Amino acid sequence: MTKKLINILILVPVGVVLIVLCVANRQSVTMALNPFNAEDQVLSVSAPFFAYIFIAFILGLVFGSLATWFSQSKHRKTAKAKKREAAQWRAEADRQKTQPAELPQTRPLDRLPSA
What we know:
two-stranded antiparallel sheet
């Protein structure tokens, strides 16, 4: 319930801002990819301005996610090793439970030194 409420409180305002951004920036803009001749039609792309903004936003999300993923790889590696070690210890504990306990054949009082 709380997660759904937080999603609504965050996603609804973001959606409204994005819709307003699309309506306000719907004029066509030409992006020239040739730095020496801006009028070159071969290396230019025309699209609404909000499309460029969305593309930049999506690329930022993707590159940020990748950077986070690669920076946390050492933590994932450590967690994987700890999980493997825990499974080995659980298997050892289960094996110890199933084996009958070997009790010494002598009683402790029999080992006392004689006076």
